[in-house]
Amino acid sequence: MPEELSEKVLELLAYARENVPHYGSIPVPSPKGNLSGFPILERADIQRAGRSLQSLSGDPDEWLATSTSGTTGEPLTVFFDSPPQALEIRIILRLAKRFGVDGSPGILHLTLHAPGPSQAMVSPWGDENILTRWNLARLWQMDDRAFTGRLERAVVGRILTAKPSVFGLLADRLGDRGTSAPAALLMSGEMCPPDLRRKIEERFHCPVSSLYTMAEVGIVATECPTVANAYHCEQESCHIEILDGDVLVTPLTNRAMPLIRYRSGDQARWLESGCQCGRTAPVFELTSARSPRHLLTADGGLVAISTFMKTMISLPVNRISLAQQGPGRVRVDYRLFDLEGEGRRRGLTRESP
Fold it and tell me: Which helix (H) or strand (E) holds 262?
């Protein structure tokens, strides 16, 4: 893979050195250099750094705060300005065109967690594309007939993005009948086992692809249609390194909170150039990826935390965390809604079967 740093990387490094306290002492390398002299940014580093990773330039009131789910570790909050949000829409629409999806289909990003608001973001360049982040929690509480009718009206002809586990839960609830075809499904945030992917394709009756994304970074790469577990780098979005198998990501467009050489927690290897699919962007194969955390039952079995989503979303809370206290013992911390909109924190420990 090319070692020389692109102009976008050099611009980001210069900006971070000038405007972000955490990077105040970093050197600016030459274009012929690489990032090997820079420290790797770990998840714990972000938590410790706090505001020192945020830019002193720009308007924080216009930034978008995004929190990771916490299913693969302690939650993080990262701030984004508008350019990476606009780029995310462009990448999704570009990928959809490869499936023959043209025009302005609209994009629905589906989540399933404790009840909270949904958000819509109009495409910033003035066309009709809208990215809507839709929390399905309240919809999930409807009876099956109302649930299916409301979902079908919302998804027909649109691009859907979600974690594979969310699409899997939807597929299970829809049953063999499935739903009227969306324009395309884009999975992200988790590895998808082949059997789950087949079920999703059968129930939604549309093209299915995968994005390599992280909530704290955005879209890193898009799935290769010809090589299993392979992804082509989105070079407009990120600079990618693979160091001793570890994937290091430097998002290039976010000036609100630059993350330089962020360790993703995934492992990969570069593949030879000249991919059969015809794309020229560097391609890598994921050899292992972040997996959702599991809970240990009393008899030693493993249960994915995502299994609890259907129960969690029926509760009047706006945040829940689960922590193993020993085999068959789980601590649940949660924050209740009250009439004034303030949360009240509670904790309890329960035996798991």
Answer: strand 262-270
pLDDT tens per residue across span 318-335? 566 666 667 777 777 766
The pTM of the full predicted model, rounded to 2 decimals, is 0.80
Q: What's residue 349's pLDDT?
A: 42
Burial of 4 (0-12, 13-18, 19+ CB in 10 A): exposed
Predicted confidence (pLDDT) per residue in 110-146, tens digit: 988 655 544 544 443 334 457 788 888 888 888 888 9
For residues 48 and 229, what is the distance between their CA atoms, to the nearest angstrom? 33
Cα torsion 66, 42, 287, 245 to 10°: value is 150
Domain count, the chain: 2
Highest mean pLDDT among 100-109, 139-148, 184-193, 230-239: 230-239
Asked if 91 and 98 count as a contact pair (C-beta separation under 8 A), the reply is no
Q: What count of residues does the chain have?
A: 353
252 and 309 within one domain: no
Q: Is residue 1 part of a domain?
A: no
What one-letter code names the amino acid at 18?
A: E
Residue whose C-alpha is closest to residue 250's, from 238, 242, 241:
238
- Dihedral of CA 88/93/99/104: which sign? positive
Beta bridge partners of 243: 246
From its phi and psi, is residue 158 left (phi > 0), alpha (psi between -120 and 50) or beta?
beta
